[in-house]
Amino acid sequence: MTAKKELEQWVQQHRELKTVEEKQIFYQKITSTLDAQSSEARLTGMLALKDLVSKQRASLEQKLSKETTSE
Predict the structure, then answer these.
(1) pLDDT band, very low/low/confident/very high, at 71 (cuts 50, 70, 90)
(2) C-alpha distances in angstroms, 70 versus 11, 56, 57, 62?
(3) pTM beyond cutoff 0.85
């Protein structure tokens, strides 16, 4: 699985969590997964995260711009 797909899967899984306990288990699972990765895999994951955050930011800025313009 690519880093981008794995990140998207984690985001989706997190959205489905309801309780604090479920979230704590989820975070422990992610931490364990990241701890087991090589430096190269971590770098790939960080680059995928950077790309995802950049796209999300651009999308939010576009939405805010449209809302501001329509007001």
Answers:
(1) low
(2) 31, 21, 20, 12
(3) no
